[in-house]
Amino acid sequence: MTWAVAQAGGVVGKRILEIGPLEGGHSYMLEQAGVAEVVAVEANTRSFLKCLCVKEVLGMRAVRYLLGDGMAFMEHDAGGFDMVFASGILYHLQDPMGFLRLLPRMAPRMLLWTHYFDEGVVRNSPAIAHKFGPVARSTIDGFAYEFVEQSYKEALQWSGFCGGSAPTSRWLTRRSIVEFLRHLGYCRIEVSFEAPEHPNGPAFAIYAELSGSG
Q1: How far apart are CA 138 and CA 214, in angstroms?
Q2: Which domain does 47 fall in, by range?
Q3: Of 151 and 165, which is predicted with more confidence?
Q4: CB 78 within 8 A of CB 88
């Protein structure tokens, strides 16, 4: 979060859309960084209630929490945000490419932290390899990409929140994510926190700006 705020040149007075605030930690950091408003959409009811508790305890005034599907929110909202924060979201979605396609109309800047699929790494990791199907290919807006179906399996029996709202999700390859952002018009793409050996699967953070956002 601190890295992304620095990449954006600060967020003082900015209007931020946060998808998946979980327990409000990043929302709090954004408020402390001087934002004018954070609209944070959380799909999990338990996490939403935690966010409301954190907001009350810490006296957060710039943050507004909404309960619902973040992708549905982006499909129907008029946009007009300065930046979108989506940390720990993409790899939980059944339509991650559709999610990425909505980002440019919401804001000229974005932060994404996500796991991605790497054949060599994932297939050689006994702890997670059994969760993934074969590599599949598809196209969206003329862009060809690769993905795999991921199953939560035993995590679905956990009393906590495994992160997804369905039994499966789609993980994109690293190339598919980065190159699709270029396809969407992001002219500046910065990558950090690259962790190919992350125990839950390869992961990285991306900060991106649309052409002309300055």
Answers
A1: 33
A2: 13-209
A3: 151
A4: no
CATH of the domain at 119: 3.40.50.150
Give me the amino acid identity at 56: E
Domain-located, residue 47: yes
Confidence (pLDDT) at 179: 98
Structure tokens at 173: 């390859």
Assigned domain for 5 exists: no
23 CB-near residues (< 8 Å, 6+ apart): 47, 50, 51, 54
pTM here? 0.92
Span 18-74, pLDDT tens digits: 999 999 999 999 999 999 999 999 999 999 999 999 999 999 999 999 999 999 999
Three-class DSSP category at 59:
coil
- 6 assigned to some structural domain: no
Instruction: Mark out the alpha helices in the chain (DSSP H runs).
Output: 2-7, 25-32, 45-58, 70-76, 96-106, 119-123, 174-183
| 87 φ, ψ (degrees, to nearest 5) | -105, 125
For 118-134, write each residue's pLDDT tens digit. 999 999 999 999 999 99
Average pLDDT taken over every residue of the chain: 94
